[in-house]
Design a protein that fits this description.
The complex is a heterodimer.
Chain A (H helix, E strand, L loop, with lengths): L1 H8 L2 H4 L2 H18 L5 H14 L12 H11 L2 H13 L3 H5 L4 H6 L2 H12 L10 H8 L6 H11 L4 H13 L1 H12 L2 H4 L11 H18 L4 H16 L3 H8 L1 H16 L3 H4 L2 H31 L18 H13 L6 H26 L1
Helix pairs in contact in A: 3-4, 4-18, 5-18, 6-11, 6-16, 6-17, 6-18, 9-10, 9-20, 10-11, 11-12, 11-22, 12-20, 13-20, 13-21, 15-16, 16-17, 17-18, 21-22
Chain B lengths: L2 H38 L14 H6 L3 H17 L1
Classes of the chains: A mainly alpha, B mainly alpha.
Protein name (chain A): Oxaloacetate decarboxylase beta chain
Pfam family, one (chain A): OAD_beta
GO molecular function (chain A): decarboxylation-driven active transmembrane transporter activity; lyase activity
């Protein structure tokens, strides 16, 4: 009889708590979004499954000794996984559009206002009882506005590891929602005339420029913002491997196998942070609201900056391309192209939007570096 | 810490952060322009997004399979007429 009782005690049914059950439901919800709705499936499948695994009672996968504990400890606590992904993103990124029109960097900078405005907003939330965000928490939440998953995870793991699960889920969910969040803001802030502006064709970019570009970005980081060196450094390494043309094997590995393997473990590790006691809080709700705010403000400030640039510049600039400054490569650029085509069916803005889009990646890495340098 | 004090710090961070991002990326603009001038000295240009015509078919002319098919069709035509 005692043996039977012990066996009963070892079952999941006997140990299942309501919060854990709710988190398993959240995990299933993420799986549904990924599989049925195709929302960032590459990330949300492992994250959702990780959330289920970590909440299985008795198994203690996220306790010291459990698989997910070690995956998190090795990959995210150390900051290695997001950086490996960033190297892959660097190897996937073509900077030609930005090198051909470097002024687009201003749009990538303007869109980062979403980050810093949200930081302020997160602290404002402290006036509501139940919220107690520190400056570190607020910075980690605000980086969701950078619309860059690896950057958000990297910064959250350094500044506010206990909020990492919610921040990563918010960041990836909103990135999937870019085609829904951005267009209304873009249409609201621009006139039909502005949206139809055609931009001059981009000049051709030489191979030498493309090779020297990552080295130059690295040099500037070394001189002015060493705190951003892990992110920018890995990004530039990936890009140099791509553009140098002499290490195609390494570049292909960084773009494919390595980024895929890392994505599996990164997703699982993020999922392991979706434990009931950390996720089922009023703060998570706040993070979700602030994340949407960050995206919207970033989009709006990018569009405004592009409007200003269009007024002062001799070359016409379609204000829509400013929205791509939030990064979320290449989704945001595609959205710009789509909204542009609605007003002028012959106006393909994709290549023009890629400039601010990759500038946004650099911009959010720089913003993360600044936050690390000032808040840590 | 008082919320108002935190708010002041956040506002400060917002200002320094935005100035920092703009400064860094503005320096990068000038650096890229300088880089383009430097790179413009010599070096052939590479067209973005334009696929080079595949050299396979041009170097060997018409593929052997096509020649075989055409000659078979011609001989069949001659036999029939």
């Amino acid at each position: 009889m005692e043996g039977l009782l012990n066996l009963w005690q070892a079952t999941g049914v006997a140990n299942l708590s309501f919060p854990a059950l709710s988190m398993i439901a959240v995990g299933c919800g993420l799986l549904y979004l990924a599989i049925a709705k195709k929302f960032e499936p590459l990330l949300l499948v492992p994250i959702g499954f990780g959330a289920i695994l970590t909440n299985i009672p008795v198994a203690a996968l996220s306790e010291p000794g459990g698989l997910l504990y070690y995956v998190y400890y090795i990959g995210i606590d150390s900051g290695i996984f997001p950086l490996l992904i960033f190297m892959g993103v660097g190897a996937l990124t073509d900077f030609s559009a930005l090198i051909a029109n470097p002024r687009m960097l201003l749009l990538g900078a303007a869109a980062q206002f979403g980050i810093f405005a949200t930081l302020f907003g997160a602290i404002l939330l402290n006036f509501i009882p139940g919220f107690e965000f520190t400056l570190q928490d607020a910075s980690a939440i605000a980086i969701i506005g950078g619309a860059d998953g690896p950057t958000a995870i990297f910064l959250a793991s350094k500044l506010s590891p206990e909020l990492l699960g919610a921040i990563a889920v918010a960041a990836y969910s909103y990135m999937a929602l870019v085609p829904i969040i951005q267009p209304p803001i873009m249409r609201w802030l621009t006139s039909d005339e502005e949206r139809s502006i055609a931009m001059p064709q981009l000049r051709a970019v030489s191979k030498r420029e493309k090779i020297l570009f990552p080295l130059m970005v690295l040099a500037l980081t070394l001189l002015f913002l060493p705190a951003a060196a892990p992110l920018v450094g890995m990004f530039c390494l990936g890009n140099l491997m791509r553009e140098s043309g002499v290490v195609d094997r390494l570049s292909n590995t960084a773009q494919n196998e390595l980024i895929n393997i890392t994505t599996i473990f990164l997703g699982l590790a993020v999922g392991s942070k979706l434990a009931a006691d950390q996720f089922l809080t009023v703060e998570t709700l706040g993070i979700l609201v602030l994340g949407a705010l960050a995206f919207s403000i970033g989009t709006a400030s990018g569009v405004y900056m592009a409007k200003i640039m269009n007024r002062v510049s001799s070359n016409p600039i379609n204000p829509l391309v400013g929205a791509a400054g939030v990064s979320a490569v290449p989704m945001a650029a595609r959205v710009v192209n789509k909204v542009g085509l609605e007003s002028n069916p012959h106006n393909f803005l994709l290549m023009h939007a890629m400039g601010p889009n990759v500038a946004g990646v650099l911009g959010s890495a720089v913003a993360a570096g600044i936050l690390l340098a000032l808040v840590n | 810490m008082e919320i108002s004090e935190l708010l002041a710090q956040a506002a400060n961070l917002m200002l320094t952060g935005m100035i920092g991002v703009f400064l860094f990326l503005s320096i990068l603009i000038f650096a890229v322009k300088a880089l383009s001038k430097f790179a413009a000295t010599g070096q052939e240009l590479e067209q973005p997004n334009v696929k080079k015509p595949s050299t396979k078919s041009t170097s060997t002319g018409v593929p052997a399979a096509h020649i075989a098919a055409i000659s078979a069709a011609v001989s069949q035509f001659r036999q029939n007429n």
